[in-house]
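Page 37, continued from 36.
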């Protein structure tokens, strides 16, 4: 199983895909935008979403071979990066994951990881 997490200012979307890339489960959790409520919000939201998507798929976090966490505002406050990088390990119980800004999810999802233009016009706007 592979986990994709697209955090945003409005919601956090999660999905699990199997080895063949087929969607196994998807869930939605509240926003993990932490500037207003503090960095602890990220862990609470990710834990809720990961628990829900794993329950739907009938798996545990230990079954996730790799995960990507797109976190809103990731990298915008350099002092927060190490704390944000550590949160998924607490949620998953392993370190088979990467974190980056949620705009990476939009770019990778809309363009398949190749060059192009991705415009985000949601709670925040990025081009």
């Amino acid at each position: 199983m592979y986990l994709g997490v697209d955090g945003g200012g409005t919601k956090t979307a999660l999905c699990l895909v199997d080895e063949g890339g087929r969607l196994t489960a998807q869930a939605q959790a509240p926003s993990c935008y932490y500037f207003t409520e503090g960095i602890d919000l990220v862990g609470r939201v990710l834990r809720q979403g990961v628990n829900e998507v794993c329950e739907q798929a009938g798996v545990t976090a230990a079954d996730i071979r790799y995960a990507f966490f797109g976190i809103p505002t990731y990298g915008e406050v350099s002092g927060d990066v190490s704390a944000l990088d550590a949160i998924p390990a607490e949620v998953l119980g392993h370190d088979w994951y990467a974190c980056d800004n949620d705009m990476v999810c939009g770019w990778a999802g809309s363009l398949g990881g190749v060059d192009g233009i991705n415009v985000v016009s949601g709670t925040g706007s990025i081009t």
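Residues 11 and 30 are 5 Å apart (CA to CA). Flag for discussion at group meeting. The chain has one domain: 2-126.
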